[in-house]
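Researcher: If convenient, please comment on what follows.
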Amino acid sequence: MNRKLPSYIVVEGPIGVGKTSLARRLADELQAELLLEQPQENPFLERFYVDPVAAALPTQLCFLMQRIRQMQSLRQGDIFNQGRRVSDFLMQKDQLFAGITLAADEYALYDQVYQQLALDAPVPDLVIYLQAPVEVLLERIQRRGRAYERRMDSAYLQRLCDAYASFFYHFDDAPLLIVNATAIDWVNRDSDFRQLVDFMATARAGRHYFNPLPFSM
């Protein structure tokens, strides 16, 4: 089954939807290189949740530089490594977040930096876009207990979900698998994970939808 799966898989979606946990499990299943966002390495992130207006620009620029370094490393690795890779972010997500967190003049400055520095990121063989309602995201965010995320409100998450929905509505850079992650638990229920992996093996060109029925005993 693993031989049928794409070589470079990206898992995306709003905060709290479970993209990192899925990316970790996929990488373990496929014995793939794992490329993750590193929010703990952004010194401005906690300040952003306390005062978004003041801290949005440095937070976003720090994430931009981090993602560019990761993409540079990934591109250089392409020369030597023909194995599988799994990531929990697309390079384009940086602009998506900037669009909802920055004021117009800050975004103009950010975009100048982005256009100067951003490189052509490797194109995934499959993008998995995870969706869930805002109330589900808030519950999961509270459950994982990161102190700096406790200030996050539903209005911000709704704007983020809307931005993701708009972005992926127009997305055609790679095969896209849209997953309703509301009732899926790929960490604690192996059957959920296996069902998703089986479906992934059938996803080739175009877009696909995975909307499993709620788990029942």
